[in-house]
Amino acid sequence: MATPFSFDLQLFAGEKTEDPTSKRMTDAHQKGQVARSQDLSAAIVILVGFFTLWNCGNYMYGELTQFMAFIFTNLQSPLDTESVVHLFWETMIVLVKILAPVMFAILLAGLALNYYQVGFVFSTEPLSFDLNRLNPVTGMGRIFSKRSLMELFKSIAKILVVGYFVYLYIVDQVIQMPKLIFMDLQMALVSIVDIIFKLAFEICTVLLILGIIDFMYQKWQHKQELKMSKQDIKDEFKQTEGDPQIKGKIKQKQKQMSLQRMMHEVPKADVIITNPTHFAIALKYEKGMTAPAIIAKGQDIVAQRIKQITRDANITIVENKPLARALYLSTEIGDVVPQELYKAVAEVLAYVYRLKKKKLA
């Protein structure tokens, strides 16, 4: 009689409690399902951009100064189509010179960070057409999903944390603002730029710390989403390694075919050595061979089958218990007789050849 507390363990077979296998991780990676933090990427890109501006500021200022001097010089002469085109191209060249260091640094930082996070991934699956994406019910489900709510919470937390640090910095710098009134224009501009860059670096530092935390969370979340049930692992094993029952049947069929091929070789033997009930070894020797070869061997039922075929083919059976056991345990089908058994096997073959001569006589 079932107890009141009895329950079926199979009810829990579908729970995804197991860590994802390497195959599942690889399949997800190939489909573009990877753990990646947009916050970390944005923080690094912004930090690299401001750092490049900070270090290349003098270069950019010099290029811009020369360009402004060029413009004011050319404005003194009358403008025509040729001079406007020339001015346009000069403007483009200066913009490229000014922006190239920043854009190149941001590009390298973005590529390096994305490669660090996910490696090299090329997948067209996210771009494939899926009608479910047009389904309003599915869309609402994505909007109010656990992931979307977590992203909303992260955005609010990021705004609050960054806003708090910006507030502390501005409160600290407000005291210094009145001093700008007593500075000349150049010194005032230098001080403002210094305040802006310090604020930018402080914000970038906060965003970088938040991005690292987010990246760790994304890796954990990605692993949770790929978790498998015990049944999933069994199904994957069947797909990769094959169904154990089918593999067993294949091995059984291969064994049967191998046994049949071996039995076809038995009538070609010169002698069968037995012990006499448990082992049977078929030996064949031809001119040019270094030693007699084992063309068939068997134990118990297979041994009896070998002896039955041998009797039907009128092949000599020699009973030698030690030799039969030694040959069975030390050789495989296709091997030649080991050197330490040459003498014993030679005596058996000599005996067989004498019997054949007597029969012919």
What share of residues are in beta strands? Answer: 5-15%
Number of helices: 11
Structural shape:
elongated
Uncertain ranges: 1-12
Estimated structural class: mainly alpha
Q: Output mean pLDDT.
A: 78
Number of domains: 2
Question: What does this molecule look like?
Answer:
- The chain contains 11 helices and 4 strands.
- With 361 residues, the chain is mainly α.
- It has 2 domains: 183 residues, no CATH class; 103 residues, name from scop (3-Layer(aba) Sandwich), CATH 3.40.1690.
- The N terminus is likely disordered.
Descriptive labels:
disordered N terminus, transport, 2 domains, membrane, name from scop, cilium, 361 residues, 4 strands
Spell out the blueprint of helices and strands.
Blueprint: H1 22-30, H2 38-74, H3 81-118, H4 136-143, H5 146-174, H6 185-225, H7 230-241, H8 244-265, E1 271-274, E2 279-284, E3 293-299, H9 301-312, E4 316-319, H10 321-330, H11 342-360
Parallel strand pairs: 1-4
Antiparallel strand pairs: 1-2, 2-3
Structure summarized in a few sentences:
InterPro entries: FlhB, T3SS_substrate_exporter, T3SS_substrate_exporter_C. This protein has 361 residues and is mainly alpha-helical.
